[in-house]
Amino acid sequence: MSESIIQMKEVNKWFGNFQVLKDINLEVKEKQKIVVCGPSGSGKSTLIRCINRLEEHQKGQIIVDGNELSEKTKDIEKIRAEVGMVFQQFNLFPHLSILDNCTLAPIWVKKTPKKKAEEFAMKQLEQVQIADQAAKFPGQLSGGQQQRAALARALCMEPKIMLFDEPTSALDPEMIKEVLDAMVNLAKAGMTMIVVTHEMGFAKEVADEVVFMDEGMIVERAKTKDFFANPKNERTKLFLSQIL
Amino acid sequence: MININILKPTSSNFQTYLYIGSALIFIGIFDVFLRSFFNINYLTFLPDSLNLFFPLIIGLVGLQMIRLEYSGNRIVDKINQNINNNSFNAGLTLIIIFLTLLVIPPALDWMILEATISGDTKEACVATEGACWTYIKVWFRRFMYGMYPNDFHWRINTAFIVLIAFAFVGYFMRGKLKNYITFYYAILYPIIAFIIINFLISGGSFGLEWVETNAWGGLSLTFIVSFFGLIFCFPLGMILALGRRSELPIIKYISIGYIEFWRGVPLITVLFMSSVMFPMFLPSDAFVDKLIRVIAAIILFEAAYVAEVIRGGLQALPRGQYDAAKSLGMGYWKMQIFVILPQALKLVIPGIANTFLALVKDTPLIFVVGLSEVVGMLQMAKTNPKWLGYAMEGYIFASILFWAICYAMSKYSQYLELKYKTER
Fold first, then answer.
1. A92 CB near a chain B CB, below 8 Å?
2. Residue (of B98, B88, B138, B181) closest to B393 by Cα position
3. Mean pLDDT per segment of 10 residues, for chain A of length 244 residues?
4. In terms of CATH, what superfamily is B134-148+211-419?
């Protein structure tokens, strides 16, 4: 495999006096799929929000696709455009139709001609099987459909990396599968993915490696098989025994 | 067993009670109606106080008799729920109905039946007790155009017609032009409006005689002041609202300072200062027209209010919207223009409408600097020695005008709310 597309070295972050990230070291290679899990409040979300600088880290180095993220980074928008993100609460733009949600950024950020952007968006919506909902507004869709629309919206920017911040946690159980299916398809297509999730089934099926976090630290990182078969850390064992 | 409370209906005898009760209520209302409209009192045989309160008493008894929960009659249920759930509310309802009946005939008499609109002098009104609409008729042009020369009124009319026509241009923009619609309304239209008003109403070129702004007045001035006030205070307020939420300290504190300053001073002093103090700070050869100074003062003042209203909308948006926009690679302005502001502005349509209505109704304050829009002209007409004593007609006229304008604006804001509603 080629060299790392994401490198985090000794990353530290504080919210006030509270340290959320402690000496995080993480490397992700191109086309790798990594699942991050851990109890709530362990800093998983903060970790991936740091990768597209929705959160700023105070110490350490984050290098995304050869660009270091810091206050000096001029074109943070350019880096963000290469890193797609899917949120727990979908965060679709409620005042725009699904299609407009998908074409807004390509048209205004990437300067794609409108027609081309719409064609590409329809393709992405077909991929997640909601092409028939394109003209509707987010408020008229079910949670699962909204999350798939959010996935399509992120993909319309043709990102190199996709970040998922608990994409299924806000969904009704019967809708989780349709979102996970879409994510599995994406993984099979060869996307680099970092997924924060509690869906261990998804992790087993898709992930190359699993990262377990607790209290702001990466406690364990292992190949998926090893992680589930023989976790080394006591904390990991406890966590797995509780959720499996 | 004897039913002791004979006023209390039960479901078995409700039909009878309903008929009797309704009849009693009807008698009560009919009595007041006769007294009020025809001055007939068929109860003179009763002692005075009983005579006066008879309709109320009989109405209360009537309402008491139809008060039954789940009567099965939909209208009766509605009445019982809303206006007849206890004796106190029933009494209030009756009193309001009676007072309305008592007020209508004299008001009708004064405003229409006994009113005069004929003639051109005060003498036409002397003979009657009613309203003197002749006064409004004679002064109508002044109320509309102020002291603007009579021969040139067509210029004001033309200017407004052209302005309205330009306002509808956006409606016909199709296809590619549609992308420029915001640009047109936010930037081009105000410039066009200024040019039209400058050349047509102010004059001074193209063979049109110069009319100084002191002569402008009446409703047309109300429109001009409100119009420029509205279209400029909105973008300024938007920028201030964004500024106040900015992460750059200088911009943030300038915005806070601006907003808190202008919200802290009364409009009337601002107007006064703009007209009296401001010219003192200018070099002696510089001249800014008084009307422009006053409009600028109103814009600066109202922008602070608009800013706070818009800020309320910005704060109501969840953080996820910012996150999503950023994660798609949008910069600050793209995020604000395409994602944040459209949603925030939609949320604050009622608040903006509120501020705009207040602005329109504040325009009469320009009276303090010697500009007379419609209420100002009213003040002048009212103190005209030939027409003393008709203030009431004037104020009613002005109220109707303002109410019509404000009601139209209010309706338009409701239409906008519906138009931009995308939630279920």
1. yes
2. B138
3. 79 90 90 90 90 89 86 82 92 92 92 92 91 91 92 93 91 89 91 91 90 90 89 88 80
4. MetI-like (1.10.3720.10)
